[in-house]
């Protein structure tokens, strides 16, 4: 997917500058252009735009955006084409090192050197980072062969190398599940996926299609408690955990292997957000945003995994459509939508994005539950919205679209977002108390 129209010379000033050309950045660029911005710069540190999708060669993308099941690179390619058709300046191989509070974007690249551009609006779409061994503190030796699942995916799918021959996967996040299948297809022995929690962290469809269909065992409530090997991993010790997630060491066993892949979660890449002193949400790790994904610094927007960890690229694109269009509005001096309703996580909800809503707009509220509910579940946004769904699990993001009319009578209020078993909701309603 070469970017034939890649930019070599930059203007001093752009109306909208977008940092990161994954699905979020690409969609934001298209939306900013459609909204009337004419000078748009899209910057990425990689050699090609597309973000993490370039290494996701499996299908499962685009069901919402295109009503079609496409691979990650195909999904990215469709957006890259749209961007190039719209005469956006795309600068690849360029690292944004700094965004100042007066909206100067500093970057460095082999083609431009160290330089900076002034901009009317910025979209931060820098994606996420994988949690590493250091962040989950697995004891043991420090041999080669321990790496994140995303790095292994990059090695296999982009560079044609195998990470090892006998692999143990710690964590059942989507990247680990996808890599379990990918490695089996490459002839590698995948000895099992070990998950600390009593439920998988990845999407249900990935558990079925990547593990069950290939006979790869998933050990829930089990973790790696030790890694052995001097130069290279030789074996790991795994153990079941109790309800407090403490390893039951008397039931531990050893597995000979040469590689440990970690799929233990993603964290929004918050470097620029922190530099800018944006208000951050401790629950998501990303910025606090309005209904148009504007952060606490006017003119700076955040979308995609930089804002919160999305399960589907399609949601990322939708979010970035809003952010890109709003960044163009700000750059063109248009009036912002009112932000007159706040939302906050309530019962069984880990986080909610965005943090404020507008009675001027139709907007999407996205959230994740803390605990799975396998049965009829009531989703509520205060008294403004109530819907029954068949089940909810933490791995699957929930989205609710709210129109301005629905919110009109709640101006000035804070609405709690809840996800509770339908039976419990009925009991509460019967008791005349619909809150928990
Ligand atoms: C293994 C895996 C499997 C997945 N499977 C599916 C699936 O089947 N279906 C689906 O819909 N979704 C899937 N997803 C999710 C989807 O890929 C992500 O939600 C999506 O890619 C996030 O988009 P993003 O634009 O926010 O971030 P990214 O795609 O990570 O893009 C961020 C970009 O920002 C750039 N960047 C970061 N910092 C800087 C900087 N300072 N300067 C310049 N550039 C910078 C990076 O180089 C990168 O290109 C999967 C994800 C993974 C990892």
As a whole number of angstroms, the C-alpha radius of gyration is 23 Å
Count every helix, treating DSSP H or I runs of 4 or more residues as helices: 10
- The average pLDDT score comes to 93
Number of domains: 3
Please provide a written account of the structure:
With 436 residues, this protein is an alpha/beta fold. It folds into three domains: 13-129 and 267-336, FAD/NAD(P)-binding domain (3-Layer(bba) Sandwich), CATH 3.50.50.60; 132-264, FAD/NAD(P)-binding domain, CATH 3.50.50.60; 342-430, no CATH class. The protein has helices spanning 23-34, 72-85, 133-136, 149-159, 174-185, 204-211, 271-275, 313-331, 404-407, 422-430, and strands at residues 13-19, 40-43, 89-91, 95-99, 104-109, 113-124, 128-130, 146-148, 166-170, 189-194, 218-219, 222-228, 235-240, 253-256, 259-262, 266-268, 300-302, 341-345, 349-353, 356-357, 363-369, 377-381, 385-389, 398-402, 414-421. The N and C termini lie far apart (51 Å). The structure holds flavin-adenine dinucleotide (FAD).
Give a quick precis of the structure.
With 436 residues, the chain is an alpha/beta fold. The protein has helices at 23-34, 72-85, 133-136, 149-159, 174-185, 204-211, 271-275, 313-331, 404-407, 422-430; strands at 13-19, 40-43, 89-91, 95-99, 104-109, 113-124, 128-130, 146-148, 166-170, 189-194, 218-219, 222-228, 235-240, 253-256, 259-262, 266-268, 300-302, 341-345, 349-353, 356-357, 363-369, 377-381, 385-389, 398-402, 414-421.
């Amino acid at each position: 997917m070469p970017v034939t129209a890649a930019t070599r010379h930059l203007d001093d000033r752009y109306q909208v500058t977008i940092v990161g050309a994954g699905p979020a950045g690409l969609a934001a660029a298209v939306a900013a252009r459609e909204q009337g911005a004419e000078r748009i710069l899209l910057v990425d540190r990689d050699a090609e735009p597309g973000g993490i999708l370039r290494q996701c060669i499996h299908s499962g993308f685009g069901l919402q955006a295109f009503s079609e099941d496409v691979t990650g690179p195909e999904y990215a390619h469709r957006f890259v084409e749209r961007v190039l058709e719209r005469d956006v300046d795309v600068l690849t191989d360029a690292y944004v090192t700094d965004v100042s509070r007066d909206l100067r974007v500093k970057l460095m690249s082999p083609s431009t050197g160290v330089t900076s551009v002034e901009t009317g609006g910025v979209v931060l779409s820098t994606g996420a980072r994988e949690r590493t061994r250091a962040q989950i503190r697995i004891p043991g030796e420090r041999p080669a062969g321990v790496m994140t699942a995303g790095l292994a995916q990059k090695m296999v799918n982009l560079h044609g190398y195998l990470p090892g021959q006998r692999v143990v996967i710690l964590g059942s996040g989507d990247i680990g599940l996808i890599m379990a299948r990918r490695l089996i297809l490459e002839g590698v022995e995948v000895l099992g996926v070990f998950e600390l929690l009593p439920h998988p962290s990845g999407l249900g469809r990935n558990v079925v299609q990547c593990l069950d269909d290939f006979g790869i065992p998933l050990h829930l409530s089990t973790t790696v408690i030790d890694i052995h090997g001097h130069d290279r991993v030789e074996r790991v010790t795994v153990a079941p955990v109790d309800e407090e997630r403490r390893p039951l060491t008397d039931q531990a066993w050893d597995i000979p292997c040469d590689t440990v892949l970690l799929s233990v979660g993603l964290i929004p890449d918050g470097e620029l957000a922190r530099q800018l002193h944006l208000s951050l949400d401790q629950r998501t790790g990303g910025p606090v945003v309005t209904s148009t994904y504007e952060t606490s610094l006017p003119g700076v927007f955040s979308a995609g995994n930089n804002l919160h960890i999305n399960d589907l690229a399609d949601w990322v694109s939708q979010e970035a459509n809003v952010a890109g269009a709003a960044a163009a509005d700000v750059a063109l001096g248009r009036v912002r939508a009112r932000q007159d309703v706040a939302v906050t996580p309530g019962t069984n909800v880990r986080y909610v994005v965005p943090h404020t809503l507008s009675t001027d707009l139709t907007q999407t509220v996205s959230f994740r539950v803390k605990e799975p509910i396998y049965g009829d579940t009531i989703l509520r946004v205060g008294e403004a919205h109530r819907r029954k769904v068949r089940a909810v699990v933490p791995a699957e993001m929930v989205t609710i679209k709210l129109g301005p009319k629905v919110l009109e009578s709640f101006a000035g209020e804070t609405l709690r977002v809840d996800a509770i078993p339908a039976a419990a909701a009925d009991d509460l309603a019967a008791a005349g108390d619909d809150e928990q």
